[in-house]
Structure formats: C-alpha cells, structure tokens
Amino acid sequence: MSAAVAARIARRELRGGLKGFRVFLACLALGIAAIAAVGLVRESIRAGLDREGAVLLGGDASVEFTYRFASPEERAFLDGIATEVVEITDFRSMAVVDRGGESERALTEVKGVDDGYPIYGEVRLEPDMPLAEAFEGRDGRPGAVMDPILIDRLGLSPGDTFRLGTKDFVLMAAITREPDDAGGGFDLGPRTMVLTRDLDGAELLQPGTLFESEYYLALPEDADLDALEARAEEALAETGFRWRDRRNGAPGVERFVDRLAAFLVLVGLAGLAVGGVGVASAVRAHLEEKTGTIATLKTLGAEGRTIFMVYLMQIGALTALGLAIGLVLGAGVPLAFSPLIQAQLPVPVEFGLHPGPLLEAALYGLLAALLFTLWPLARTEDIRAAQLFRDAVGRTRGLPRPIYLVVLAAILAALVGSAAWLSGLAKLTLWSAGGIAAAFVALLLVAWGVRALARHLASTRAAQGRSALRLALGAVGGPGGEAASVVLSLGLGLTVLAAIGQIDSNLRNAIARDLPDVAPSYFMVDIQPNQIDGFLDRLNDDPAVSQVETAPMLRGIVTRINDRPAREVAGDHWVVSGDRGVTYADRPSEDTRVTAGEWWPEDYDGPPQISFAAEEAEEIGLELGDTLTLNVLGRDITGTITSFREVDFSTAGIGFVLTMNPAALRGAPHTYIATIHAEEEAEAQILRDLASAYPNITAIRVRDAIDRVSEVLAGIAAAITYGALATLITGFVVLIGAAAAGVRARTYEAAVLKTLGASRRTILLSFALRSALLGAAAGALAIVAGGLAGWAVSRFVMETSFAFEPVSAVLIVLGGVMLTTLAGLAFAWGPLAARPARVLRARE
C-alpha cells in the first residue's frame, strides 16, 4: 500500500473523534504550555530591558570606578565622547533621627547625584514636585528624598529632619519611582537620595571610604557603542573601571531572570517527561483498541510498514493539535495575567507573542512526542494477524527492530542537546537528564518489585480471610496490570515535587541552621584608622560583647594574572568579575590554616607577597609563584603568591580572598571593618554608643541582612514550586488516563467477582486498596529519589549542607496515596454498576 492509502485510512479513523486521546492531548499541551509560558515571560522581560536599557542604566553608557572619583584626565575623556555626563555616588550609611532624647537609626543606601540627574526617565515623588525643588530643602538645610519603607521605619514625614554622618538633611518627599534602580543589584538598605555636593561636611566620603562613583553618559544617536567601549578600554586601561551600555542596562536582573527561567524550563521538561508516560500509555491503549482494525488490514495484505505509517500519521496529526493547544495556552496565560506579573516585577516588561520561546516549546514538545510514541508504534510491525484476532492476547513483548532503537536514541540525544544549548545551563541540564533517566529506571524497578511483592503477599497467611486485600494484591501483581503506568506517572511527578520540597526546605533553613551559632551581631564598615582604638576600647570593656574582629580594608580589582588579562586566565570567575576586598597582615591569625607555601616574616619589607584563598585558587588554576596585579584606587600593585590558606565565607565573619604583606599597601588610604559578637539585648546600646561617637561608621545588622536574603530565596523557591506543581498536575492527568484505560478490565473483573458472590463493598474496597498500594509505592520512591536529588542540588549546586526534611516527605506519601485512591474510585462506579450477564456474554 502507498503512503496515500495510509493517509486515507488514517484520515477516516480520525473522523471517529478524539475519544481515547484526551489524556494524550492534555499531557502534551500542559507540558508545552508550561515551557512556553516561562519562556514568554523571560523574553518579555528581555524585550522590556532592551527597550528601556538606557533608562534602566541611567544613560546610553556608564563608566564606574571603585572607591574613587574619576581623575581630571579621566573626566576629560568622558566629556569628550559624550554630549552629557552625570556623576553618581553610591554608598551605605546610617540615617539617624533624634527624637525625645533618643536616636533611631536605620541602614540606608545613599545615592549622591548632580544637577543633571536623571539623563533619561524621571524620578517621581510623593508629594509630587520636581527633584531639583526637593533638593533645595528648607531653613538652610539641604533636601533629601527617601524610599517609603525607610520613611515608615524611622517614623518620618515630609519636613522632618534626619542626619547622615554629621550633617542634617530635610526630608522633602518619598521616592515612588527611580528610573535607574533596576540595574543596581542587591541592596541591604532602602534608598536615600541627595545632591553629592551636599555631602560635604558630613564626613562620609573620606579616604578609604567604601563607595562607588558612576558616570552616566548621553551619547550621540549614531554612536558606535563597540567602538566607544574599545576607546574607553584604551584610554582607561587597567584603571579598574567598568563599562556598561544600554545593551545591558540591568545585567544582574537579566542574568537572574535567565538562570531562573532556564531552571524552570528544566522543571517543565521533567513535566513533559511525566506527560510522556501518559502519551505512551494513550498510544498503546489506542493501538490495543484497534486490534480488530489492524487484524483486518493484516489479513487483507497490509504490511507492517503500512500499519506503522497509518498510526504514525494519526499520532502526528494529534501531536500537531496538542502543540497548537499548548502554544495557545502558553502564550495566552502570560498575556491574560500580564498586569499581575508586571506588578510583581521591578523591571519593565513588554508582553507580546515572542516567537523564540514558542518555537523552543514546540521543539521540545515535538521531540518528546516522537520519543514516547515511536516505541509502541514500532512494535506494531512485528504483530501477527493471528495474535490480533485473539482477545485473550494482550500487548506484545520484546524490543522493536534495531533501526527504531537507533532513531529513539537520536531523538533523545536531540532533546537533551537542544535543552542544554537553549537553556545555557549545559551541566545542570545533563545532570537533570541523567536524574530523570535514573528515576525512570528506578520507577520501573519499583513497579516490578511491587508486582512481585504483591504476588507473594497475596499467597501469605496474612492475606487469607481478607478478600478485598487479597483481590487488590492479586490485581497489582497480575499480568497486564496498571502498576507500571501508575508508578511511573505519579512517581516521577512526586519525585520532582519531593526534590523541590527538600531544596526549598534546605534553602530556607541553611541560614537559620548554619549561621546563628557563629554569625556576628553587627558588621561595621568605614572605621577610620584614627577611630579604631576608641572603637575597640568601647567594645573591649563591655561584658555583653563576646568577640570583636577587626581588619584593615581596601578594595582592589584583579586586572592581570601572570601578566595576562585576568579574565583571559580566570574567565567569569567571581574573583575577577569585580572589585574584591583586600587586607594586609604581618602574621596569620590564630584561626588561619596555611595549606601551601609560607607566610612572610613579620618585618618583611621586600617585593609584595600575596596569600590567596586555597579553594578559589584551585578553581582559577593558580599556583605558588604566580603573580597578580591589583588596581587599588587607580594604582597598580603586582605581587607574588607565596601561600594558600583556608577561608570560610559561611560564618558571616571577616574573610578575604587576598591578603598582602603590610609594606605592599603602605600609604594607601584605607579604613577598617569589624564584626561584633554580642548578646542580643545589648545590641541597641552598642549601636547608639558607636554611632554617636563615630557618625561616619556604617553598621549592618546581620539579622536584617539574613532576612533580606531569605525574602529573595523565598521568591525563588515559590517560583520553582509552582513549576513542580505543574509537573504534578500532569502526572495526575496521566494517572486519570491510566485509570480510565483500565475501566474495561475492571468491568470484566467486577462481573466475574459478582458472579462468584463477591459483594459490591468488597469489590470497591479492593479497587481502593490497589490504588492506595500503588500510590504508597510511588510516594515512597519519590521520597528516596527526591531526597537524593535535593541532596545533590544542595551539595553541588548550592554548596550548602543538607538535612532531610521529614514533613514534606510524609505529605508526599499521603498525597500519592490520596491521588491514586481518588483516581481509582472515580473510575470504579461504572464497573460496579455493570450487569455481570451482559459483560460476560459480550466476552464469549
């Protein structure tokens, strides 16, 4: 028979409707919709960032310097390439309000601007007024505007006075919109905005103070950004500057969104794998229902290849329908909820029908449909007509021909490869694919084990006299049962949910579990050298203070490694991705463990030497004797690595990747940082005393920082959990499909049992017990597999310790039992209501 004949047969069969393919379509559409929706939101955020790149950045381009302002030569270069330049200063400080003899303090991110700010966009204030008017202040005091959160925290109102450092400011308005805020990254405190020149006399911007200066540039419309960046790199070579332009106006936000979206796409692919079980089951059930048709075709001389083409065309048409439904849902849901999504995001979003993510979702769906339908389709070629006419013979056994196995392997490789390439997380994708494959194998082994155990238990003395239990065990352990499909579909969905539950729990508990025993009360910065002695005197005399650590602090950028550009050697490693903390010490502290090399002598005054963190050095590939060039406040210092040491950053204490001998940094302006461990009830008084004596010092309360991090982690965990729930919903659809597919067998079983005298109660109880047993098995395996996955992610991706969370595990098992029981009972009433005589007569 020709392909035209096969197409005609396939078209005529499809006229019968979609009965039997509802689960097929639902599983495929749900998986595609989840992936498409995530991708569409990601692409909408990208489009918004691209459209508003200059506004988010603050200019067409920006040049940032660390802990210094641009020199006259550098400023002249910037003025020469731009039509307008605005100078921004950013640092942390304490906002202080004196009220009733007491002082209230709160950490704030201070942003100093000049008269040209903002170049693009506008700052919106409440009450509504121009920013320039707000900065005029009143009664001889300069004006300032604040984040509403900080205003509420300090109990301020417009017209009230507060203090930054040693200078008073008047609060004029609340900031309701700051156009260039999205690209600023993670802030520990709410915003306060003032004119930079009004900070004169506040004693906040002193030599060694931790601050950043950034210059927003307005460029001509026809400016060549690549050429300008090249000119900047040549003119400002190795000065520690950072260039950004409107093409990446909010790189931190975009990178975070891309990584989270990629991870959610991987969760969506796991859901597609769960749906694949339902797809395969639906195709297999459809082919079994078509036994008479296939037998007739074989009898009339149809070849196995022709039958394969007939049903491949049918499945292809239905796959196209499922793709269309999934893409419509995936595109429609984000568009329908766009106002809600936009309200939850701090960046502009340009919703629309972006083709990229839709094509990506369609590719995944098509490959997954091929992967899960080809196996049952391929096995139709080897079925003999005589077998198909016998109703007693069930599904075929054995493997398809080798050519189909090769094609299946190629499709699987294409699916995993495209996911690795498109997600940008190749390593995580490969590990995820391996985990899903391992889960599939484990679930199949569990299904086989459950059937074997059920057969054994059915014949034991414990089952005797318990008809419902024995019938349930016999049905689970018998041939042609639904153990494999139920355990696979529900087990994989529950495994994903269990893994997410364990990861979520460990993310939430990592800080609370690991830090309270060792975390300091305060982290103090910007302590001037002439203040350190008095600072320590106050703390050393306080019995509530258990420990104080101090260290000199500078910031530097690693620009070269062994006289080669640092990024060329270390890639995107975090040590060379920005400025790093640098300290000096004449001898290692008592807690320092040198792992290789030797520390310099206490009176060493030779060429600069460096002690580097051992773990980071191994990641970069550094060895003893290598040289590093640091740019510190515009000055290059080249030192030789003479030792490696352990550095533990998890304690929230003082830890430096890079320590140098004191002579190497002699004369460089710097400040001190300190950590204070104190009893909680004494923290407020310590802060009052130190802030009153040294108003320039910034105190970061570690508990507040932990809460801020916890809020971010909670949002991430919630997004991932929603993705896992979508996977579980797909698994439940597959479960319903498996229950629906077994109605015919259960109807015949109920008829036989009624004929033999079994009561409706016994039959119903046996149906419920078999479903509960399979759900318990799927849930039990999900706990093990999900726990292993959670451990792997916590240990190797998050790099945190892992503790098994039992509450979510118990809920997983109970959920598995409940879902399978409900699905089983939902399809039990029909078989119970059928009349035995009619059912048995139809099978004669």
Automatic annotation (TrEMBL):
Top-level taxon: Bacteria
Subcellular location: Cell membrane
ABC3 transporter permease C-terminal domain sequence ranges: 267-379, 725-829
Keyword presence, Nucleus: no
Matching InterPro entries: ABC3_permease_C, Membrane_comp_ABC_pdt
Main location, first listed in the record: membrane
Swiss-Prot/TrEMBL keywords: Cell membrane, Membrane, Transmembrane, Transmembrane helix
GO CC terms: plasma membrane
Membrane topology category: Multi-pass membrane protein
Residues that span the membrane, as ranges: 21-41, 260-287, 308-341, 361-378, 399-422, 428-450, 471-500, 712-743, 763-789, 809-834
PANTHER family assigned to the protein according to its UniProt record, in alphabetical order: INNER MEMBRANE PROTEIN (PTHR30287:SF1), MEMBRANE COMPONENT OF PREDICTED ABC SUPERFAMILY METABOLITE UPTAKE TRANSPORTER (PTHR30287)
Record-given protein name: Putative ABC transport system permease protein
Organism: Tranquillimonas alkanivorans
